[in-house]
Amino acid sequence: MMNKQIILAALCSAGLISGCNQSTEQTTAVVANDNQRSATLPAKPETDAADMDVNTLLTVNGRPVTRAMYSLYFQDRMRGVPDAKTSAEMQMGVLNELANILIVSQAAEEAGLAEREDVSASLELLKAKLLTQVAIQEHATKHQPSDEEIQQIYDAEYASQSNTEYKARHILVKEEEEAKKLITELDGGSDFAELAKQHSTGPTGKDGGDLGWFDAAQMVEPFAKALTGMEKGKYSAAPVQTQFGWHVILLEDSRQSPAPTLESVKGKIQTALQQKALTDYMQGLRDSASLIFNEKNAKQAPDAQQDASMASSQQSESATEATAEKESGDTTAPAEQK
């Protein structure tokens, strides 16, 4: 099977698609002004336009091209074109492109290419993926969580949720002995923030080691464990080791954070309920389906020829896969946090 680049080159040379040598910014103008070249393979009209259904834009050898098909192709054709403005000329240019593609595809069908094993397998897989995507979208649309369901989850899991937040400073150094010396200096009355500015290798050193307010769960376990056992206004009596190095910690204050509001977690609850409903739906379908695995055949890897055909097919369906596939850390957070 030819790769995508060869196929595109062939279509360009035959005049089946326009704008082959143009940049993305020029595509709109090319489609609008290149109707003659895009219509080099016109189909002979078999039906008078007046007799066509209102949703039929043209027929190709008697087969209708509907508004829905054209709309899908037009959207795909204009993808990546910045500020694409449609015009009658552009729309006709794209319609002629679609007509040419269908002319070639019909010729391929007549030549029996649709029955070829790799082609029929690709078509079947594309159909299955598309139907799966549509089924999932339909299920999600018809099974929106009610306000009552969302409220029940909120009351059970969030309403009474209250965490302790801490305000602390720390000094991070590489060696345990250096951390012990700093504790000795603190015992002698040295200012914690000044020592942090002078010695801390962490990103908060320039701020006197100030970590602000945070939940202990945001910190690595040894740091959080040491912090939760400290008294306000006290610093750690011994250095605390983490994967970042050795810490001297000062707990300045602590407070109870209020439970999150319903509005702040409503989206999260809704997503979780939708995901559960979808999981239950798919599991129900699987439970009622008849599945018979041929493990011997399934465990055998495809041969080189099949691999090549599959790889080529996957290139042509990458856009479909991208729409079917359903987050990054805070880079400004101190390195000591998770």
Low-pLDDT windows of residues: 21-43, 316-336
- Beta-strand portion reads 5-15%
- End-to-end separation in angstroms reads 48 Å
Largest sheet: 4 strands, antiparallel
Number of strands: 6
Strand order of the largest sheet: 4-3-6-5
Number of helices: 14
- Helicity, in percent? 40-55%
The whole-number mean of residue pLDDT values reads 81
SSE order in H/E notation? Answer: HHHEEHHHHEHHEHEEHHHH
Give the overall shape, derived from the CA principal axes: elongated
Secondary-structure-based class equals alpha+beta
Rg, Cα atoms, Å: 32 Å
SSE inventory with pairings:
Layout: H1 4-13, H2 27-33, H3 35-38, E1 56-60, E2 63-66, H4 67-78, H5 88-110, H6 117-142, H7 147-157, E3 164-173, H8 176-187, H9 192-199, E4 210-215, H10 221-228, E5 240-242, E6 245-256, H11 262-288, H12 295-298, H13 304-316, H14 318-324
Antiparallel strand pairs: 1-2, 3-4, 3-6, 5-6
Helix pairs in contact: 2-5, 4-5, 6-14, 7-11
Region (Disordered): 294-338
EC number: 5.2.1.8
Enzyme class: isomerase
